[in-house]
User: Which sequence fits this backbone?
């Protein structure tokens, strides 16, 4: 069977990083930029993306799984990911639609593995099961000092008139978040062919432009395309 031409391949891009670094905003902006270049793309998130995965997301982020330990949480994330890959990610990629995900398997490695202490062999086994070969083509790691990130989160909450209530992971101590940050940086160092680390301590518009530069450099089919 002949391989699909390079220019027609759907790409799978993931965003990773700690809490409050601006992943969701930049996922939306990248989606719009791709669509401006006539690239059919969808955005999604983890845990979530499908009805079953969203139910698991709610269970975890409400803290209902915390007492079970990081190992059990890793299994729950893998279950959500398996449904996400099977029902949303893989079908879109097969149909030629790019997929941009706010978090993916690296978050389990960073949160439950490198920070939570879950054995690497268990994490790797869960990845084999859940990914089924659907490894991202590019992972953008947004990096920021956790203390700065949480100040930004607090400021946004004040501006929006919202109560500052953290989810299951946002409530962890700052030292935990510093270890988490190092976990993501370690993943990037271990996977230089896939991961690009970008400082999130930039204005949103500047960060958007930096991300677009990294994406267009990685994928030749974006170079020279005219806006739609």
Assistant:
């Amino acid at each position: 069977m002949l391989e699909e031409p390079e220019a027609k391949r759907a790409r799978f891009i993931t965003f990773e990083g700690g809490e409050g670094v601006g992943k969701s905003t930049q996922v939306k902006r990248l989606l719009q930029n791709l669509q401006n270049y006539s690239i059919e793309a969808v955005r999604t998130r983890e845990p979530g993306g499908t009805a079953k995965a969203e139910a698991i997301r709610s269970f975890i982020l409400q803290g209902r799984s915390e007492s079970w330990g990081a190992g059990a949480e890793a299994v729950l994330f893998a279950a959500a990911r398996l449904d996400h890959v099977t029902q949303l990610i893989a079908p879109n990629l097969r149909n030629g639609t790019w997929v941009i995900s706010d978090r993916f398997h690296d978050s389990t490695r960073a949160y439950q593995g490198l920070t939570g202490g879950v054995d690497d062999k268990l994490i790797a086994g869960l990845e084999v099961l859940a990914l089924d070969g659907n490894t991202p083509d590019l992972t953008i790691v947004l990096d920021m000092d956790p203390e700065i990130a949480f100040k930004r989160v607090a400021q946004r909450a004040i501006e929006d008139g919202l109560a500052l209530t953290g989810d299951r992971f946002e409530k962890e101590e700052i030292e935990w978040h510093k270890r988490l940050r190092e976990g993501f940086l370690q993943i990037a160092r271990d996977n230089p062919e896939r991961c690009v680390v970008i400082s999130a301590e930039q204005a949103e518009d500047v960060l958007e432009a930096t991300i677009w530069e990294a994406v267009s450099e990685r994928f030749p089919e974006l170079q020279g395309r005219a806006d739609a």
